[in-house]
Amino acid sequence: MHSIDQILGELQRFGWLDYVAIAAMFLVCIVIGIYFGFMNKSVSENDYMLGGRKMLVVPIAFSLVASFISGITLLGLPTEVYSYGTQYLYVAFGVLGMGIVMGVFYLPVFHDLNITSTYEYLELRFDRRLRMYGSVMFVIMNIAFLPIVIYVPALAFNQVTGVAVHTITPIVCIICVFYTSMGGLKAVIWTDVVQAVSMVGALILVAVKGSMDIGGFNVVIERAWHSNRLEAPDLSIDPTVRHTFWCLFVGGIFYWTQTNAVSQNMIQRYLALPTLRDARKALCFFCAGVLILMALCGYNGLLIYATYQNCDPLTTKLAKARDQLLPLFVMDTLGELPGMTGLFIAGVFSAALSSLSTCLNSMSAVVLEDFVKPYVKQPLSNRASTWIMRLVVVGVGVVCVGLVYVVQHMGTVLQLTMSLESITNGPLFGIFTLGILLPWINGNSAMLGGIVGVVAMSWVSLNAQWAIASGAISYQTKPLSVDHCDYTFDVANLVTSAANATHSTGQATDDIFPLYRISYMWYTCLGSLITIIVALLSSLVFGTNDPNSIDPTLLTPCIRKFFRFNARKSTDTYNADIFLQNKLRSDEVAL
User: Fold this and answer.
1) How far apart are CA 328 and CA 157, in angstroms?
2) pLDDT on residue 497
3) What distance in Å separates the CA atoms of residue 477 and residue 294, rounded to the nearest whole number?
């Protein structure tokens, strides 16, 4: 029998056609950057950051999908379904709920204000302190998240080629920094279109070829059914169960709305569209696209189990990390077809590039609008603004390449970053919700709510991640077997992965504080509610605004009709062409 090293050596058949496929994808991105950077270049700051607010719906929708589905999702979701079943896929109902909530309550406000940075809204509605709070939280989260976005696909590339992670990450970063800094949002959008097509094509290719190899779709479903991986919704109301229908639906609405409606990374694309109607169309297409990609990832997870049901590569360590499971399957399934593995890896890198370019472009906008413009005495020229944004893109890119070394050498960084995300997401979403829905809340109350929210979520999520990392909390996988492996492996080191769990084993003992055991899907919801409740209570101390004195365009349309707004000067000090006083819009009539 062969050893694991011999098996991996046989599977790593990455030929010149595979390299050509990856190089072609990178070359297309570079050409797009050159085109929008030199031939059809941005003529103004607005053109660079928002495409002149004249972008088309379909490219924006593709960009939204590509930006949201990172390589982490592309590689992590199939492993989740492989190990723990399909329960997580019920988050699709949360995505649909997010589409309704965002389209009705949040999108009309941001689109009507014609702002560039979403955190400008916090200054318009509250004060400059809240704007800085939001911007700082955004910058911290992106700098923590971007190295993982780069590292995960590099790990996949390492699995199929043996090329060192730190050889490929600088190359990917340089290419992304080039077309993002040169072409601005237009280049990011059109490269996202190419990358979205590449992602979907890669997933379909794996699904079709893998299904054919084991006897078809029916075999995949049958094996998934017998192993209890096809699951009905878990209607338990226990918040400590990792994945239930309620935490995926309710918690999913909070998480996805925060990520899609108030995060600069995503809202910047909606603001690049000329009308609110177009933005809502893009939102509908985005929801449909995400659901399709999630379904493909979920099916590929079931397909991997159907293929490896008698010899789990995670247990035997044929796949040394959970994010290498899908690349291993691709090598096993597509390796005999020249160029096919390369196409798949190109799809994984596409997911990473789209997320990376989105974050870099958004970071440049936030730094310029929130950290530079408010503190310069003279208005910046278009040339100066463009060069500041380009330098931000380059600088953040360099920092991210350096932080990849940290990610590689600190095994708990992935969990720590997910904790950090939950720490900032909930309180930020709570502050925006206060501004949009509760006009009597003032800046002091919102600020205290945000600070208490961050402190509380830091305490909960960091302690929870420590309990998981130390083994105090663990979760049970679906049945996995190594009884019929046709290669040798080290039996003494058999370890079943416990990451991304769906069902608790019941080993989370009663001496662990209950809040540490709640599902991570509730974190954004919990952080938001803490922020809102503290702000409401603190209004008894700090007082309240006169709701009728608030500019109505800072509130969601369905709230405006409950107040009589005073005629007053516009609160907008950034865009003189925006009229913020008592505008009657079609949304208000409809609502």
Assistant:
1) 10
2) 38
3) 20
